[in-house]
Amino acid sequence: MPDRILLSDALTAGLHWLYETEQPSDAWMDHHGEQIPVLGNRFLAFVPTSDCGLPVIVIGVVKPTWKEGPRGDMVPTNPLTPIELPRLAAELERRGYAVRATWNGFPGPTGSVGLARPAHPSQVAAVDRYRAGCQAHPARSVFCECDAWRAGFVRAVRPVALASA
After folding, report:
1. 20: closest CA among 120, 162, 160?
2. Which of the two residues, 115 and 162, has the higher pLDDT score?
3. Is the pLDDT of residue 1 over 70?
4. Closest CA to 58 of 81, 33, 22
5. For residue 82, is it left (φ>0), alpha (ψ between -120 and 50) or beta?
6. Integer angstrom CA distances of residue 4 from 14, 58, 141
7. Of the N and C termini of the chain, which has fewer Cβ atoms inside 10 Å?
8. Span 65-82, pLDDT tens digits
9. How far apart are CA 122 and CA 20, in angstroms?
10. Is cis: bond before 107, omega within 30 of 0?
11. What's the pLDDT tens digit per position in 85-99?
12. Can you give the pTM of this predicted structure?
């Protein structure tokens, strides 16, 4: 995968992965999904299933920088712009993917778009297998480091993003 690509190319690749790519039955996928780096210090993350069982796409700042805010909390100096999250949601709708909700976004370093259509069943199953943890070492759950647990991540099919010509 190229280092950084256009957001539109990352969106195409990630949506294809989310909805059309079948995961092997012996693979598992981290519940945070897969990230594709895009131009402009941004990434898109494609999460097959959330707490409500539906996919989420996250847009975020790759390398946020921080400063102390007016209330003593840390705030990003390079947050998402006010239009990035609404623009992503509009582009998804334009492509035919119904958006059920958006949250976070400006002035924060990440924003999320919840989609209305479930991801490919094998993607959801791969996340479920991850959440079940290592079957060889149940006490270690998702924090196991055995070869069998690691192999499940290796078998997972990742998104393929190609740079525009």
Report:
1. 120
2. 115
3. no
4. 33
5. alpha
6. 14, 16, 33
7. C
8. 999 999 999 999 999 999
9. 10
10. yes
11. 999 999 999 999 999
12. 0.92
Q: Which residue from 126, 155, 139 is spatially nearest to 147, judged by alpha carbons?
A: 155
Token pair 């969106």: residue: 11
Alpha carbon distance 163, 70 (integer Å) = 41
SS3 per-residue string spanning the chain:
CCCCECHHHHHHHHHHHHHHCCCCCCCCCCCCCEEEEECCCEEEEEECCCCCCCCEEEEEECCCCEEECCCCCEEECCCCCCCHHHHHHHHHHHCCCCEEEEEECCCCCEEEEEECCCCCHHHHHHHHHHHHCCCCCHHHHHHCCCHHHHHHHHHCCCCCCCCCC
Q: Whose structure tokens read 């941004």?
A: 42
Compute the half-sphere exposure of residue 130: CA atoms within 13 Å on the CB side of its CA: 23
Model confidence at 165: pLDDT above 50:
no
- For residue 141, what are the CA distances in angstroms to 49, 124, 129, 136, 149? 19, 18, 11, 9, 10
